[in-house]
TrEMBL record:
It comes from Vanrija humicola. It is an enzyme of class 2 (transferase). It catalyses: L-aspartate + 2-oxoglutarate = oxaloacetate + L-glutamate. Belongs to the class-I pyridoxal-phosphate-dependent aminotransferase family. This is Aspartate aminotransferase. PROSITE patterns: AA_TRANSFER_CLASS_1. Its EC number is 2.6.1.1. GO terms for cellular component: cytosol. Homodimer. SUPFAM superfamilies: PLP-dependent transferases. One of its GO terms (molecular function) is pyridoxal phosphate binding. It holds the Pfam family Aminotran_1_2.
Amino acid sequence: MGHQITSPSQSCLRHRPCLGPRSTPPGMWPLPTRRRPSPTPSSPSPRRTTPTPVSLPSRGPHSRPAPDKINLGQGAYKDNTGKPWILPAVAGAEAHLARHPRGHEYLHRFGHPTFRRLAAEVAFGAGSQLLAEGRVASVQAVSGSGAVHLAAAFLRLLYPDAAVYIPNPSWSNHRVMFEAIGFPVHEYAYYDAARRGVAFDALLHDLDTAPPGSIIVLHACAHNPTGCDLTHAQWAAVGAVLKRRRHIPVIDSAYQGFASGDLDADAHAIRLLLDELALPGVLCQSFSKSMGLYGERAGAIHVVVHGLPAPSASEVVARIEGQIAWIARKEYTTPPRYGAEIVAAVLSDPALYAQWRADLATMSGRISAMRVAIQRHLRELGVPADDNWDHVTAQIGMFWFSGLSAPQARWLRSERHVYLADSGRVSLTGVNEGNVRRLCEAIRDAVATV
């Protein structure tokens, strides 16, 4: 069966005939067919659950005048006074750009070249053999959500009959975006509510029984919403299943550096699956959280090519970049410039880069300190929990999956002006030294009352 690929610069790039999605040799990317993604969402999966809300309703915390309200719904970092924090590294980059303005011209359709190159180095490592051999196609995206959308649209061209599997639970936009492109979306087990941890045996079973060649969405670190990450040994076991079943990993990396405070530690899953295990896959990368650039929409999509000698891989990489840019061309033409300029300035200046790593440690450290404080206060107050609140500090990242029920969350909103999602997900960015005790007292009252 012959396949074709189209790009903005060429109406049709022909390649040697290749195998279809189900029989493609491991490490090989089939070229897209001319079939277009269906705009009609698929029917719901029988295992579908209610998505975890990303934020609270607009009539919630911002419209209430209560001076003691605590907003635990927003996924944006705040300092210990509850104020937004401009990272010193970002402030330094903006000062540099003010002294050396770059202008406001359109970017290339692939995005900011320095941003793309250095963003890939952040993800795969500056000494990555993948990058040295030119095996990574990188295109700037409209932050992480834009990268996920481009990944869905690109994979729909390559694997029109594949199914997508997302963790249960997951970021709610994962399902929405893949279904909007036309993929059937199913769930694989991830969270064990009784143990308040990863349901690892069930997770492996679901991945092992998914149809061969399925698209598997994974969280690189700081799983949203549970905060429960896999261990290195568990990632290795997942990688073995993905390789044996010839699944396609789509890794969503929204919190690299923010989870542990260390960029390399948080990139373990990315480098294991896409480099060491040589899985062809897609990485969706965002700098919204790690640099506090929420409104600047700085992100990238990276597609890794294996199974070909380096010269041939470079040719395929160029074609993939053209295909992704062609998808983007129909939607927004070129990506935003200013956020990419900031990221490029931080990553290309040794002093700013060192400052950024220190900033990541500051943010991660404050969040970890709030976990310890919450756990201590809940224990001091005698709030009952089957694990004595061990899970608070066992989880990692911006969110605490508290185990509070939807009725308890509603009671906290109405009676204590504590705003969290019905799922019990708490954004720890809204917790600080000034309100942590009051939060824990409110939780005590909710548990006792509801």
